[in-house]
Write the structure tokens for this entry.
Amino acid sequence: MTTLPILQLVGQPILVSRSSARALEPELERALRDGNGGARLDFAGVMGVTPSFLDEILSVISRFKSVNQGQVQVEVIHPPTRLSSKFSAVGRGHQLAIRESGNGWLITRDSAA
Amino acid sequence: MAAQDPRLDSFREDKVIVDLRHCTFVRPAAVLWCVTYPLLVRSRGVACSVLVPDNVGVCVYLKSLGLFRTLQDAGVEVDDRGIRDKKDPQLILPLTGFATEYEVEQMANLAWHALSDSGLGSANLHPLVSETFAELGLNAAEHAESPIGAYGFIQFYEFEEGKRFVCGVADGGIGIRSSLERNPEIRDRVPYDWVAIDLAVRERVSTTGNTTRGIGLYGVAEDMRVPHRQLIIHSGQGSLYISEDIETESRRANLFPGTLTYASIPT
């Protein structure tokens, strides 16, 4: 499973804009393809993230899920914050479930959707 | 009231004077009106002057925040002679103009570094302060359609009730109601500004109608629904207030020519 070092790729500790998230798209698509739907996003050193940034990341995961008709399992390790209702809401919009796991968050297909 | 709204074609003043001379205290949120209204007046090509407070302490505060410089740069007459430009160590991000998502991101990161360097307040709140400012700024950059752009600041402030981080953002744009009216599914549900604001803080209510959007203001409101935090959203003639005891109240209010958002986080 490929691990993407988010801080290194974006270069800033507070992740805000959709355009910054879109810059990760090629690496994330490649990681999902190579991992057959599995990838790991390492947020070590990231101090904050907005729903807008996460929304763009989930767009890529959601698109992969639709195109490949397959499962996705994306681990978010070292998340900058606890999983709050706003981030869960972003996931629901993409029919993805985000839940807390031992190492951070786990993003999967929302079986209730 | 409508005639006094400098966003409207019916605005017909020859000159506007904002008289602050008798102000002995200016709340941080009110500073945003003091920048938005004069700049909108100037954007109409109308002369505008701001008479600064007689109270020197208030003047020094407003000057340190960057209000006078911002107004002067836009051609507003401000006579601040003799008021020293004192560096305020509690000012995290002075009043700064922006128009794009990219600028918001730069400002949020600048603010986070400044918060970390300052040692002010609880360090575990610094990311929340930066994120909250960023989300409020993104909303303005993306939806406001403001002829003057948007302005924001972050400050550590010692109120009587305790020490707080405060973030403020304001624009002179179309307002939340007009923005939501762009969404045909919502258009008929927003007869008043205060109804529109009430809707805007709900999950997945957005201008676009895209089901993945509409989390920004909802997220900020959720983050502020914690005891002792506050959120004020003032847009047009409506306002919404999430109080320290987590009560939410939306109501009719005096005109704000655009949208003002203000979050207050105790530390």
